[in-house]
Fold this protein.
Amino acid sequence: MASLRDLRRRLKGISNISQVTKAMQTIAASKMRRAEDQVLASRPYAEKAFEVLTHLAQQAGPTQQLHPLLVDRPIEKVGLVFVTSDRGLAGAYNSNIIRAVAQFIQELDKPISLITVGQRGNDAMRRTRQNIVADFSKQIPDRPAVADILPIARIVIDDFLEGKYDEVYIAYTDFVNTLIQRPVVKRLLPLLPEKIEEQAVSEYVEARQNTLAQAYLYEPAPEHLLDVVLPRFTELQIYQAILEAQASEHAARMVAMRNATENANELIGSLTLTYNRLRQQSITMEILDIVGGVEALNTE
């Protein structure tokens, strides 16, 4: 059985850990609220942007000739943007998306190149000897702007246009609410409005019937507009995915730290009870020794 000194030491250590996890929970909750506000604010913009893109792509003329980012070609080489966190202590947040990506790679069974965003994902892919062509670990701030993800988008778009990839996917954790975060792997390029359910961040675009769109006169022509809209929409998809991932990370860390704090408090209560019982036992033994000594003196 542990001594009183050992129990006091354990109680002090667990109490210190409880204070740290409580502070981390508070910080994560604050960051999560800011990230959630940012996510919710950008979703309507993503929806409207996809609506405009769909309408442009449905204008008269073969869409395959409008812009190379719309070309659905035979898949021989695949690129993957892999979004995780730089830090741990976020429950199953990183392990879930890493598991989903590992399963995706196994089922794909084609040459794949990765662009990692986050130290945890980069470490996991290096351990499995995957082909990592670019790494953006520790380069995305807590409150990212579109400018922060432009280097990622530029690599993705340029490599796709050069034919290095026939298809590009993005793996991230979709923020549903504080308790639910869903790892997903969605197509990033080519942009295929007719297959909206497979597109990144498509869950926030309203389902629309593929009816004939009303014809509009565009100035400049639709193909010139697509030269601007398509790269911007690709950037928007990456930006939205990173916002979703960050909100999910902070929510997962807040829940994990709250659970850790509650477990520490329960352990403190259990150890305190054991400490008091052991202390009472020690006091009782000391009283018995004193009484025994008094009786021994009286009998002499």
Remarks:
- The mean pLDDT is 84.
- The chain has one domain: 25-254.
- The radius of gyration is 29 Å.
